[in-house]
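Per reviewer request, we include the raw input and output of the structure prediction for the construct analysed in the revised manuscript.
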Amino acid sequence: MTATALFLFFLFLPWPVAAAAEKSYHWRGLRVRQSTVQDVKGVLGEPAQEYREQLLYEKLSFDPQHPDGKDVRLDTVVFNINAKGIVESIFLSPEWGTTDEQLRPILGEGKKMRYGKFLLSTLGEVKVGAGTRPNEKLHYIDLDATCEFYPQSSILMLYIRQDVVTGHYLIQFVVFY
């Protein structure tokens, strides 16, 4: 399938609450469906841009408290906020060239699959079309793109492509949902 998937569901549709495993990973201690705007600002400070439904941060490290995460740089971090001020999802957009190998020590091994299969298995359907507009950017994800799913932590790593030399996957987004 060569169509692109509608990425809108990550931003605006509520996700079913999955039981978290004991060793689940929460980015910087912030939890989707639990943390508030005030919690986010308490951990990260004031955002570069703030909207009614989003907080946008720029140029952060993945995890300064983790020895393997402090050197992984993020271009942008978008927190999607519901009407009650609760975090619905977190999008991490790493610097170009960041690979799965760099996040493996933090996240471990997930389950690799096609993005379209992930959508089908989690939503029961696949919608095709335009993406969403965090900070006025449109994001399109190919349904055949490889992704890695961490069900115990409700994390999805979306890959751009696999590097032909190293075999590692280049990361487009890390999504906490």
